[in-house]
Amino acid sequence: MPRHALLNNIDHQHTRVLHRFGAEYGDNIASTLVFPTEFTELQKEYPILLRRDADDNQYQAIALLGFAADENLYLNNQQPSGWDARYIPASIEKGPFLIGFQRQSSDLNDEPEPVVHIDIDHPKISEQYGQQLFLPQGGNSPYLEHISARLQAIHQGLAIAPAMFAAFTELELIEPVNIEFSLDNGEKYRLTGNYCINAARLAALRGTGLEQLHQAGFLQLAYAIVNSMSNIRSLIERKNQLNRQQAVAVSDKPL
Hints:
Distance between the termini: 44 Å
Organism: Rheinheimera pacifica
Helix content: 25-40%
Shape: flat
Protein name: SapC protein
Pfam families: SapC (PF07277)
């Protein structure tokens, strides 16, 4: 079980975090939750798909990272960070950090405010290596400021998502999508259980529906999802390239 603690500059003065990504840190996942606050950046690198949550059947957005269990095609140990993309989804980049809630007074009527917690058993935690969290004088390090901004994006995204999906549903923009393709080696894939935005229906929007979507800030998010689908082709090429590298590695082994 993870052990979560409220982050502070006394208990965690010497705590460091490895800002690196790899299977050894649990980053070998085929998809990750993503949030409306990052769609604009995500669309440049990843396919954004919608899925229904198994518990409450509500829509949630994911970035597709691979085609098989424990496969993340963006992991690359030749890269300094171990990640081969210009933007890293916030749910992965946050590493051992998470959002907790705490009342700032004893008044039970006060709304709890978001605060930063840390999983002290996370594999990226170190006392010797990685990014420091606090400056010698006790202030936040630039790295912690960056992570705090990523957590804020998650927090805000979680608040925005229900209204966004409700608007998409009301305008009948969401439709199921099956993704089928063959790799260069003949291996066939069929991905089911995903949803996307109907591009033709989105483009045909007029009048009140279009205006409401625009005013809410959801129009550009819908187009970000649509535009992101072109990244499936580059993800397939990543898989083909991995297969070629593995084939060469096998052929180079001594008999």
